[in-house]
Amino acid sequence: MRLPAGRFVSQALILGIFTNLVLLSSSNDAGEGAGEIAIQDGTIPPLLEPPNATAIINKIFVDYDRRLRPFYGGEPVKIFISMGFISISNIIEENMEFEADIYMRQFWKDPRLSYGDRNLTLTFQGDTLKKLWFPDTYFENSKKTFVHEDTRTVILFGDGNLLYSARMTVIAIGTMDFRNYPMDVQVFFFRALSYGFDTSQITYKWINAQLYSSEMTEFYVTKKIITAAKVKYMIGWFDYLDVSFVVQRRIGHYVIRIFFPCILCTVVSWLPFWMEHDDIGDRGALGITSLLTEVFLLQYSNDSMPRVSYVKAADLFLIVSFAFTFMALLESVAVFKCIKRAGTRRQKYTVPSQEVLKVDDMVDGANTNPAFRTEEKYAETRSDLIELKEPQENKSELEKVNGEKGNAAWHPEYKTSVSSKIAKFLDSFKCNNAKTNLSYLIDRSSRILFPLMYFGFIAFFFGYYGV
């Protein structure tokens, strides 16, 4: 049975249109898929379909030699670096070291890896990274660097540009100045450069350096400084990138743990100024206890510090406080010594309370017999001192017996009269609440001078160090 020619042509036309529609739909789907891969919204784009990605990877690594840098024998490779600091922690002043967690990103171009399509990207991880050339970037002031292998990722763009990203933990060292400790300002810096390629082979440029959090337990960041320069070594000039964080130490912890206890101990050492002058035991115990406490504070403040050859601000404060406490102890000793000396002088010129006096019997003064008869008389006076007055009647009798120019200095009553006058003079320096004695003047002056000088020093100290 034969079909009419017109009907056959119409069926063929319908079939052709349907085929074209199917092909057009397939091409649109493929275009949409390619458009989705090319979208860059801050996330890693999806990979190509396995067959296509494998073909591209196999192609670009056919003649690729990872032992040679890009542009070998020609212009230097330009490395652009971006650093993101997660945190700066584990600051150990004794070793002058600090630790940082960093997201390290490096950009460079390797035309040998170009595969033409700029809308497609390839992501490499794991063993594939061993096939690529990497710049030998390192941190010059690093004591130890640990790269987290799971985070090592390379994104390859179609024009041969590469983005290498990795998270690393760096323990760095740097010179610290503790002259103003604990009001000190430190600089934590990181220097990145190539280990083996000089400026004729690799150059470095900054993109950005960012600290995600400026808060630390003991410090806070006040400034960020990024620089790029060159340094000369034995084999040539090298580019390097520096990022520095200027940090200020938080002083609140040290006010509570060092300054306040030290000030309190020094003030306590002044309490003997209001105690009894002759209470040397209690006064001395209080001063010695304050001294020992300040010695402990001095040792505590230097436990985590390196053994530097200069005096730190905290050391200066503690030493001056120690000196004030020691002078307060010396003041108590001086007051007690003054009392002892005054007591010794008075005892030298006074008569004991029970004294046996040999007095000549002057009752029969009219007798011409020059023989004298003596008898023992006991004079009882007040408990501490005796003050005997010189009897004028006896003196006149002695003058009658010995003559007008007779010597009566040997008589006990004459000596007692002289000692009585000296004792009265020394009583003017008596230590029993007399406001004219030397020990009282020392204590009263110390009550004013010690606080005035010490708090004046505190005001000058914190003003000088800018607290």
UniProtKB/TrEMBL annotation:
Keyword list, A-Z: Cell membrane, Ion channel, Ion transport, Membrane, Receptor, Signal, Transmembrane, Transmembrane helix, Transport
Subcellular localization: Cell membrane; Membrane
Membrane topology, from the record: Multi-pass membrane protein
GO molecular function annotation: extracellular ligand-gated monoatomic ion channel activity; transmembrane signaling receptor activity
Span of the signal peptide: 1-24
Keyword Methyltransferase: no
GO CC terms in record: plasma membrane
Listed transmembrane segments: 254-273, 316-339, 448-466
UniProt main location, coarse: membrane
Source superkingdom: Eukaryota
Keyword Oxidoreductase set for record: no
Protein name: Gamma-aminobutyric acid receptor subunit beta-1
Taxonomic lineage: Eukaryota, Metazoa, Cnidaria, Anthozoa, Hexacorallia
